[in-house]
Design a protein that fits this description.
Blueprint (H helix, E strand, L loop, with lengths): L1 H7 L22 H6 L10 E8 L5 E3 L7 E4 H13 L4 E6 L19 H13 L4 E6 L12 E3 L2 E3 H18 L3 E4 L6 H11 L6 E8 L6 H7 L2 H4 L15 H13 L3 E5 L5 H10 L4 E5 L1 H12 L5 H15 L3 E4 L2 H9 L1
Parallel strand pairs: 1-3, 1-4, 1-12, 4-5, 5-8, 8-9, 9-10, 10-11, 11-12
Antiparallel strand pairs: 2-3, 6-7
Helix pairs in contact: 3-4, 4-5, 5-6, 10-12
Length: about 350
């Protein structure tokens, strides 16, 4: 046995020792050393918390396909933002639940300075100051009667005409106090156009987080229930402008273009099924990468946990580490408040 171990200890190649001289388990022996050599760190500042906002005062509405997530009136949304700021969460992302009577074919309510997203932005800013980021979604689907992210012509979402409205929408949100504009529409060329519109309106300091690699995914269902666009979209889909889940090289092209047009942060959506894309973007471009743990991912973890198939806290925290390990700087998750609380414990 001694001769066998002696042979194994000889370097298999120059500069590389083999077992038993090298034992990776030594760095796992005690908690203190596991903590010391941990490669990936995760803090509350990495989190962005998406919230759904409704009209009224002191109102909460449960979302049945997303247990534990609620639609909140503006006053409660501002209160939630303050709680998030106290936990050290990086930002709040606002998604409005626009009443059906305010939805139109052209989605013009997106540019109303008194719409839900703008009023909520002002309320959060007044409540929290600059203690937490305010991310505003730029897309028309919360405001269109057909549920698409852009303007329709003969059943097709038209690109350039949509961009003109998105620019107006982005400036409208910046005037309300948005600190990060997040175009989620996937129109070609919209990042450069929005950047120009913001700059020309005096908002050179407002960043853009582009939904750069947004896939036409089946994981978005509960979100569409939450914002009330599922019925509007009906049997339609968004495959003419969102990415094919089969494509990886296309994500590189999308991100490269968005960076050239002025994106400050690029996003991958969904999250867990697309960790390979997160890693590729992190390795390919010197810009921060965000990832969205979408509603379907949340629902899977929540329902599995409710069935006692999984330990909720353990699997959620593991998923957060997976996003960070893949290279994400920012993580949008409906678990953000819970994760912030777990980190604080």
């Amino acid at each position: 046995m001694r001769d066998y171990l002696h042979d194994l200890s000889r370097p298999s190649s120059p500069g590389h020792a083999a077992f038993p001289r090298t034992r990776l388990r030594r760095n796992r022996r005690w908690p203190w050393i596991r903590e010391m050599v941990q490669e990936t760190r995760f803090v509350a500042a990495n989190l962005i918390w998406p919230i759904f906002v409704i009209e009224g005062t002191n109102r909460r509405e449960p979302i049945h396909s997303m247990p534990g997530v609620e639609r909140l009136s503006i006053d409660l949304a501002a209160q939630a933002a303050e709680e998030a700021a106290n936990l050290g969460i990086g930002a709040i992302a606002i998604f409005p639940v626009t009443p059906q009577e305010k939805k139109t074919e052209d989605g013009r309510h997106a540019c109303d300075s008194k719409n839900l997203i703008c009023e909520t932005t002002r309320a959060i800013a007044a409540k929290t100051g600059n203690r937490i980021g305010i991310v505003c979604d730029v897309a028309l689907d919360p405001y269109t009667s057909h549920g698409q992210d852009g303007l329709l012509r003969d059943g097709y979402v038209v690109n350039d005409e949509t961009i003109a409205v998105l620019c107006e929408q982005a400036v409208n949100q910046a005037k309300a106090g948005a600190t990060l504009i997040a175009p989620s529409d996937m129109m070609d060329g919209r990042i450069g156009a929005i950047r120009d519109a913001l700059d020309e309106s005096g908002f050179q300091h407002i960043g853009i987080m582009s939904y750069a690699a947004k896939y036409a995914s089946s994981f978005y269902g509960p979100f569409r229930d939450a914002v009330g666009s599922a019925k509007n979209l009906a049997s339609g889909d968004k495959k003419t402008y969102q990415m094919n889940p089969a494509n990886s090289e296309e994500a590189i092209r999308e991100v490269e273009l968005d960076i050239a047009e002025g994106a400050d942060i690029v996003m991958v959506k969904p999250g867990m099924p697309y960790l390979d894309i997160v890693r590729r973007l992190h390795d390919s471009f010197p810009v921060p990468v965000a990832v969205y743990q979408v509603s379907g991912e949340y629902a899977m973890l929540k329902f599995a946990s409710q069935a006692n198939a999984l330990n909720e806290q353990s699997v959620v925290m593991e998923s957060m580490l997976a996003f960070r390990r893949a290279g994400a700087s920012a993580i949008l998750t409906y678990y953000a408040k819970h994760v912030g609380q777990w980190l604080a414990e």
